[in-house]
Amino acid sequence: MNYDFQWYRITRNLEPMFEGLLVTYEVTVLAMAIALILGLILALMRLSNSRWLSGIAQVYIELGRAMPLYVFLLWIYFGLAFALNIVFQPMEAGVLALGLLTAAYMAEIYRSGILAVDRGQFEAARALGLTPASIYRDVVLPQAFRIILPSAGNQFVGAFKGATIVAVIGVADLMYFAREASLEFFKPFEFYTSAGVLLIASTIAFSGLVAVMERRMRGGETG
């Protein structure tokens, strides 16, 4: 049986497809905001002299990196609602699940960036009488942020690809629309192919921006 390609269905539904893509972007950006803040807290805990704080951060990081996003997403959206009566809207659950797991990866990125800062910077700052908070805020973190920027950009690309899974709990993103449209028009090849093209194009664009940042970073260091 020959398949009847109907690509005109895509051109007639471009607006809702791009609206769905914007939702995917929104999930990614909000999740990364959580990951950037929580990841820094976890990294500082991991590097602290307190065994308790360091241990808690290490457990979180190991669990976060081992946990599949799909399982964690369903646990937050369905599991917490049934077991503890903690109910999240689909968008909230998607952002929270992606943000909490991405924070585990960002914590290690932050930690590697902080450890890459010359230890002499710490000693010089202490010699000037700066407090530990000032040392990190004014001396260490600005240098660490410069070091981790390319890796953080790559993590953003990874988070974007992970964000496509939120459709399974009803977030009206691009993949949600592709699924609903393919069921309505019985044209899964056209809609899923188009969704894939948009996602791949976005990933390539984000990766290109990361590559540009890396080149500028290398240029700044050599200059």
Q: What does this protein structure show overall?
A:
83% of the residues lie in helices and 0% in strands. The longest helix is centred in the last third of the chain and has 35 residues, at 188-222. The chain starts with 7 loop residues before the first helix and ends with a helix. The protein has one domain (14-222): MetI-like (MetI-like fold, Orthogonal Bundle). The chain is an all-alpha fold and 223 residues long. α2 packs across α5 (90-116), α2 runs antiparallel to α7 and α6 (119-127) runs antiparallel to α7. The radius of gyration is 21 Å and the shape is flat. The model has no long low-confidence stretch (mean pLDDT 92).
Please summarize what this structure is.
With 223 residues, the protein is mostly helical. 83% of the residues lie in helices and 0% in strands. α2 (14-47) runs antiparallel to α8 (174-185), α5 (90-116) packs across α7 (132-163) and α6 runs antiparallel to α7.
String of helices and strands:
HHHHHHHHH
The CATH class name reads Mainly Alpha
Contiguous low-pLDDT stretches (5 residues minimum) are: none
Quote the average pLDDT. 92
Report the helical percentage. over 70%
Largest sheet data: none
Q: Hey, roughly how much beta strand do the residues contain?
A: under 5%
